[in-house]
Amino acid sequence: MTIFDIIVAVILGFFFLFSLFKGMVREIFSLLGYLAGYILALNYQDELAVWLREIVAQPVIARIVGFVIIFFVVRISFGLIGRLLRKFMAGSTVLSVPDRILGGVLGFAKGLVIVAVIMFPLSLFEDSYKKVTQGSVLAPYLEQIANFVSQEVHERNLLDKFPKVSIDDVKKKIKELSDLKELSEDMKAKKDEIMKSVQDKVKTESKEQTQEKYTDEDKAKLKDILKTF
């Protein structure tokens, strides 16, 4: 076994044991998040990379960054759904043996996805990839799994089940959010301006009323003084 094989074995073993204690139900959305993130990142990273070229000069780095962004956005989204589900199932704390075993299997599958995610950016550097995986026992099997998943996705048209989202749509949404933020800030500024105007008016009216009050009192005192003469 090579160092690459040992690292892969450690990753798979860790996720298996970790998920063994968490159980099947808690791992379903986690696995779906990793798997959907990997599939979507694999298929849309080129499109996102075109947009990222405005920021990242090197095409390879832009593809890697695009892949990572898509993967983690999808992963986090599924994770949030999983957390909401766990809250509803908080009362069921005792895990059965089958539940734990299935959880471990899902964790092992999640570990495979993690390894595939790590291997993707490495595969973009062909020479480095060959050096790292040279003599590896597990690398050929991992490549077969990755190719199988990619082939199944295309043959079954799984991507059609996801909402159609283009980079232009994302840009449009970002612009809309930016415009909405500016509108909100303008409304807040207008509100502050109106409140300040109202407060100033109240202060002015109060001051004028006070001055009028003193003037009437002064007139009354003056009349009293004049009466004494």
Compact overview of the structure:
The chain is an all-alpha fold. It has seven helices and no strands.
Give the overall pLDDT as a whole number. 73
Query: What amount of the residues lies in strands?
Result: under 5%
Please summarize the sheet with the most strands. none
Terminal-residue CA separation: 122 Å
Instruction: Name the overall outline.
Output: elongated
Describe this structure in words.
The chain has 229 residues and is an all-alpha fold. It folds into 2 domains: 3-152, no CATH class; 163-204. Helices cover 84% and strands 0% of the residues. It is built from 7 helices and no strands. The longest helix is centred in the last third of the chain and has 62 residues, at 167-228. The termini are far apart. The mean pLDDT is 73.
Helix and strand arrangement:
Elements: H1 3-22, H2 24-52, H3 59-88, H4 97-123, H5 126-133, H6 139-155, H7 167-228
Keywords:
mainly alpha, 0% strand, elongated, 229 residues
